[in-house]
Amino acid sequence: MDFAPDDRTRELTARARVFLEEHVLPAEEVLDQQLAAAPDEWSVRPIVRDLQSAARDQGLWNLFLPGEEGAGLTNLQYAPVAEVTGWSPRLAPAAFNCAAPDTGNMEVLAQFGSAEQREQWLTPLLRADIRSSFCMTEPDTASSDATNIGTRIRRDGDEYVITGRKWWSTGAMNPDAAIFIVMGKTDPDADRHRQQSMILVPRDTAGVSIVRPLTVFGYDDRDHGGHAEIAFEEVRVPASHLIGEEGSGFAIAQARLGPGRIHHCMRALGMGERALSLIRSRANERHAFGRTLAEQGVIREWAAESRIQLEALRLLVLKTAWLMDTVGNRRAMTEIQAIKIAVPRAVQTIIDRAIQVYGAAGVSSDTPLAELYAGIRSLRIADGPDEVHLSSLGRAELRG
Amino acid sequence: MDFAPDDRTRELTARARVFLEEHVLPAEEVLDQQLAAAPDEWSVRPIVRDLQSAARDQGLWNLFLPGEEGAGLTNLQYAPVAEVTGWSPRLAPAAFNCAAPDTGNMEVLAQFGSAEQREQWLTPLLRADIRSSFCMTEPDTASSDATNIGTRIRRDGDEYVITGRKWWSTGAMNPDAAIFIVMGKTDPDADRHRQQSMILVPRDTAGVSIVRPLTVFGYDDRDHGGHAEIAFEEVRVPASHLIGEEGSGFAIAQARLGPGRIHHCMRALGMGERALSLIRSRANERHAFGRTLAEQGVIREWAAESRIQLEALRLLVLKTAWLMDTVGNRRAMTEIQAIKIAVPRAVQTIIDRAIQVYGAAGVSSDTPLAELYAGIRSLRIADGPDEVHLSSLGRAELRG
Amino acid sequence: MDFAPDDRTRELTARARVFLEEHVLPAEEVLDQQLAAAPDEWSVRPIVRDLQSAARDQGLWNLFLPGEEGAGLTNLQYAPVAEVTGWSPRLAPAAFNCAAPDTGNMEVLAQFGSAEQREQWLTPLLRADIRSSFCMTEPDTASSDATNIGTRIRRDGDEYVITGRKWWSTGAMNPDAAIFIVMGKTDPDADRHRQQSMILVPRDTAGVSIVRPLTVFGYDDRDHGGHAEIAFEEVRVPASHLIGEEGSGFAIAQARLGPGRIHHCMRALGMGERALSLIRSRANERHAFGRTLAEQGVIREWAAESRIQLEALRLLVLKTAWLMDTVGNRRAMTEIQAIKIAVPRAVQTIIDRAIQVYGAAGVSSDTPLAELYAGIRSLRIADGPDEVHLSSLGRAELRG
Amino acid sequence: MDFAPDDRTRELTARARVFLEEHVLPAEEVLDQQLAAAPDEWSVRPIVRDLQSAARDQGLWNLFLPGEEGAGLTNLQYAPVAEVTGWSPRLAPAAFNCAAPDTGNMEVLAQFGSAEQREQWLTPLLRADIRSSFCMTEPDTASSDATNIGTRIRRDGDEYVITGRKWWSTGAMNPDAAIFIVMGKTDPDADRHRQQSMILVPRDTAGVSIVRPLTVFGYDDRDHGGHAEIAFEEVRVPASHLIGEEGSGFAIAQARLGPGRIHHCMRALGMGERALSLIRSRANERHAFGRTLAEQGVIREWAAESRIQLEALRLLVLKTAWLMDTVGNRRAMTEIQAIKIAVPRAVQTIIDRAIQVYGAAGVSSDTPLAELYAGIRSLRIADGPDEVHLSSLGRAELRG
């Protein structure tokens, strides 16, 4: 249980931190301007391309991906770098080519993709030449129960035919999102966890139609490709587009979720740190009733509580990363569930406190807080609501 | 301490309820379409005009305003009607001409305006021919401390000259918002609470410029005129535009705040009831793991907690209304502060639960929940953050 | 929905308040001394007898009991008087002959007892000549599920024979507790809610043995007769000792619970008010780091939160009382459950805050706080844990 | 940041765990019997002596003490052993001679005592031949502010003369507590933190009088010597009894507090684990409404939340221990404050949940829960209330 950062981690984190301060944070305003200048545009903005180019030059690239195709970091090594990117979730993860859902999709391709699939899709994704989307969640069903999935993937000769409707396909509004990984049922009569398969569907395949963009509290998340509702109507792809074998969809999804969840938690810690740092600035600069905010009211207590939460939960995230590295994702499941529940919730509280400290500025776009809030609030729902995980974790705990 | 609704209240509430079900709730989708159809338009949408016309015909009009110019209801009589409008805060208050900030502005004019001011501005407001805005909050100062106000109102012969910058002027993006009530200092050297005055500034006066719209969690609140940042640069108006006398601004603001706060709380209860009703629908309709949501997890506990909170806080709101009616707003100050703190916080929790129950649909525009959340969250900041009120209420309590 | 106290209520409450200040609060120290002087004694202490005599002289007697045998107050009339007694739960309820479990037992006898039963047991209870106990809860079963009851009541000729084990029979350690009302099953095969009956068992009946006293957080509650575990082994009583008819036990229990719960909540509000008043004293008297506690930290916020909770919940209790008076206990069930859950929980929080304000003195016997805490904490368990009520209330709410 | 237990720690913890299961837990009932058999006795009970003898034989002795006089463990090594003792706080710490306040007193003597002082008092304490008390807190002053201390230590020739009143001198009711470490002011005019000194006062010195025992939620904590109020009236001891030099009292107190706080937190984790393990047993064994508790209601959520809290906070405690070992207590101050606030609060919540799960048995002496609760609740007050630490930690955080 050694969480101490090794030299490489220390060096990478420092470099990422400098990059954040020097390039990313100043670029936030530029992004706002570029977004405002082209309000109907969904593709990656020029400033993101600029940052990507600079980050790649500095070796801050594909850090999320273990193995030879990526930076080869362990989860424990990646954690503090990922936390740095959480300070600016609209820009930093994309700048480092470490943004969801591309990360998870690249992991799936790296781990389960055929040589052909890897060459065709993983390679350009690793270069950020294209973006991707993950089509799992469906309207009108509780997606935390995988047997609810309505999309069908039917074998027809050398092809698979996909029919169904997905939503919350993050990034899919971006025309550069060239490839979709779609989850559906190949065999509704198989065992509960062998009914599902995953298949690659190029964006421009006939029968694929983007129905509409979705919003998260008022935000369309246009900067990273938004969230789409997509209809798949008798969409035909070559049989070679199936990932792994028929029936392996649930297992692949599970494999994808573990890293996805811990990455979210790592970034969330950075979001919490940024909110706390904003509390600090405001507390020292703002005056009311003749004193700074820091000298009155409950702001000291809020800062203390926030610090305690971040310290304790960061350790739990690091332990989880260490477990995933040493005993594997499956045996780290309890810890993954624990951080999936605890981290977003705590960070939501911290951001909410920061909003309250900033007052009206906190809910507006003059601070990053409201958008951070929308992002972290969604994490309590994404990949299954907290309650499903709490109940599952509790059941395991009561079994002893 | 008799909160029982009298016959008139019972009848009005029932009528409002029917109007809500038959006209307002079905109109929500129409509003969405009209908003989408003219994305750059800030004025009142046709559907609102239609609803206003229908509501006026049914006597559901200006119910918030006591005295002869309004419906003449007491706070206790108005409360349950206002709660009904909270079910659809984008449409119902406007439909009944009971929407902030017009309500508060009309109250100010009715109570403190000269005959000329009333004729010129109150009359068209009561007919909903024009809209208005209230310009109090300023960027860069903690507005909960009235001595922080930076806007200056200088007497110059027969005119007043106004210079300053305001933001969160709700409704001011709407070109129909013809009149602004502006708070500023006429005498920065007077006693703490005699420095401020209020003055009427027609929108088209030279020197008034709308700087930009502000957003709340990504929402621009375009349907009711949004929130503007406004610059006043050497703006000249006739001296007769001053409301009341020089130095009375703080007192007028206080008089305006009491009813404003209780109206917000009444509507908030309706928002909470709607969220709870949405929880109820979802719990019974949605299935996961083979059972309805109502049959598993913590949703029953959430529904129970929500019901208890709404019941207890409704009674506190009614008592506050009754106190305002019987002993006056000033002597109801503790109760007004109490509901200002407790109601939005509780309703925020209830809406947050509902979002969690709806999952991804809850944060999107497919349910009214995320926008309700943004609205209720802002109430914890508007008119002074909760913390200022908590501290003030606590100080009074400790004095005994 | 008129909760205004009428003249009689106002007068009685004022009288009770004076009695509390002049007689009861000063007697708390005397009680401590009398308890310390006879540490093995379980009977009513002389100071309680003195207070009872004084209270009876002032007409502060049997106020809980509606109808001719009691003071004839409605629940709404009794509520504020009961709240006064909550300020000193060890002494005031007993002083006014309004202490549980005698109150509930007297209600049962008044409502369901035969003329003979009433004469033999109700009359001396109304005079406080004897005390009583209610034997319902059993060790080793979840008593919130009435079908779990293990005690058997078997008809044998002109007698009933009772066998079983009870605990948490409050008051039963007191040798003056002359009569026990025992719940048991007369017909385990009947319908779920017709299996149970209640029967009167005089303390000195053969086969009754007091097994041991139980403690609540270290307190033996010796002042009001403690809590006993009792074994009933082939205990024979005349058939005329059955209350009501066979199978009516569950219904009688339900009838008893409603008033019992609201009485607990009324007193709990008084406990909360006392804790808040102790916070107030301490905040103004105690100095640390050069200022009073009232001038620093979070104590103002705690006082404000406590005040808000007490105000809102008092109204909910009053509404519940009013409903019980006007539409009956059964139709007030939702509200009774709501206050049963919400009031003790809130008051527990308030007392916990007060303990924290007092520091070490707060957990010791130098303030009444720790013992108040033990009492209120137990209310979250008594008559079914909060969770059972939350779940039931939530189910009803979700049914709509 | 390596928290992995080394071989010695692993082995010691395993041995302690076996000792707990085989000797300590079964002895809890014996202790109850021995306490009941001699209700007026304050000294160490025979069962404790038996356990001490067995523990010493197994090398489970003085594990808290670093350096040659103790077991020489680091904080990180001691942590998991201390956690084991928290499962049975009445017996296990005493059995291992690791019980407060003796631990802190031995640390003070080992670190600051003269050779003579060590020989006379440390040696028998290390053998558990005598017990000791720490006399710091005073009635009527806020002890978290050290300048409030009223006790005076006056030099008079070769002696010091001590006058003052202390309370919450834990262990001092035990006649075997042969030595008291007393904090008082030698120079009230010195700098704020140089006014205080510590001095050794043998129990039998003239002028020392035990005023009374204090209770914690009704418990007299008789098993470990209770808590005494003590009067010191012109008590004379040789000048050589001063610990360190005049004016060093505050520094010694600070040195004593760091380890004291972390030890409390380590044990608190064990208390939390025991409560959670009791929840587990009950959830699986108890039936209501036809199912086990584990299958219904919110108990799964409670178990999950408890597990998450324990995991996160254990890591924070281990990090704190590691920091104390590597950078020193002073530079670990933020973390020490953090765990001092967070751990007892979380464990209190867990124990409260367990009480609720057990119902009436939970507040009685039939489970260890109520007494565990009283103990953990007191920790939120001991060594300064949470609020003082929160405010201090928050101030540091806002300074950045």
Protein traits:
oxidoreductase (chains A, B, C, D), 3 domains, 10 strands, Butyryl-CoA Dehydrogenase, subunit A, domain 2, 400 residues, FAD (chains A, B, C, D), homotetramer, Butyryl-CoA Dehydrogenase, subunit A, domain 3, alpha+beta, Acyl-CoA dehydrogenase family protein (chains A, B, C, D), Butyryl-Coa Dehydrogenase, subunit A, domain 1
Describe this structure in words.
- Chains A, B, C, D: Pfam families: Acyl-CoA_dh_1, Acyl-CoA_dh_M, Acyl-CoA_dh_N.
- Chains A, B, C, D: Its cofactor is FAD.
- Chains A, B, C, D: Residues 133-234 form the Acyl-CoA oxidase/dehydrogenase middle domain.
- Chains A, B, C, D: It comes from Microbacterium pumilum.
- Chain A contains twelve helices and ten strands.
- Chain A has 400 residues and is an alpha+beta fold.
- Chain A folds into three domains: 7-126, Orthogonal Bundle (Butyryl-Coa Dehydrogenase, subunit A, domain 1); 131-246, Butyryl-CoA Dehydrogenase, subunit A, domain 2 (Beta Barrel); 250-399, Butyryl-CoA Dehydrogenase, subunit A, domain 3 (Up-down Bundle).
- Chain A has a four-stranded mixed β-sheet, covered by helices on one side. A four-stranded antiparallel β-sheet of chain A has the order 2-3-7-6, with no helix packed on it.
- Chain A is globular.
- Chain A starts with 6 loop residues before the first helix and ends with a helix.
- At the C-D interface, strand 9, helix 10, helix 11 and helix 12 of C face strand 9, helix 10, helix 11 and helix 12 of D.
